[in-house]
Design a protein that fits this description.
nine-stranded mixed beta sheet, about 280 residues, binds adenosine-5'-diphosphate
Amino acid sequence: MAEQKSNCSGNCSSCGQSCSSRNEPQSLLEPTAEFNNIKHVIGVVSGKGGVGKSMVTSSLAVLMNKMGYKVGILDADITGPSIPKSFGINSKVYQNELGILPAETENGIKIMSINLLLEDKEAPVLWRGPVIAGAVKQFWHDVVWGDLDYLFVDCPPGTGDVPLTVFQSLPLDGVVIVTSPQDLVSMIVKKAYNMANMMNIPVLGIIENMSSVICPECKKEFKIFGSGSETVADEIGVELLGKMPIDVTLAQLVDNGCFEKYDNIYLKDAAEKIDNKINK
Ligand code: ADP
């Protein structure tokens, strides 16, 4: 018979201890609407902000779209949404009897972001964690995504309330961790990795952004932050999927809302590796 602690109330949901009589935790996965057929959901995470998580999300979406897949982006970075602007989408989204209709890029990538609902795109979202988490869940089940091969979720940085909601509520096939090659960040990468592990979500690999900068004049490559991602990837036993330099052309295209015009040769292999891992 299973051993039971003397102070056991029988209510596992209010108890943090693990014991042999513990019941399986209840799944907190949220269903999406019945008319949505989303084959794969991939989270893009980072331990801290500003490392290029949204850029990687958008790049992977564009690359998968070029590979012929139907792709969507759920911008779960509610307090720092940057996806619509980088694709030049300024209009608001509408609702019909089925739900909220996502915006679409020129090449047909579907996008849902809080900025597509706000009147004033520069107004800060001053919401408490549970309200933000509720918005993310709504973007999952109240948006008319239709048929998608891949839905990329741009998670907010860190290991707080909202990333936790994404990990618990959405049926993630795996996560991609984005990092810059600084030592400090590598420690933070491990936090992101450990969080995914604790939630039993496969880590598909690491993408190192801002690996170097290429001088637009002399074309010489400078590794301003050193390189730590190989070591971290080795230490935690995940694949380093790709590296990307700071690219002035990309920064200009993003500023002008022309993300789809950027041919991201640096992350092409990474997109193919992810596709292979998911479809193997
Ligand atoms: P995060 O989502 O991690 O906060 P973003 O993807 O929004 O970071 O990137 C922060 C800023 O840096 C954005 O303006 C983005 O366009 C720019 N950026 C990110 N990666 C690169 C890169 N490799 N080359 C040039 N600019 C970049």
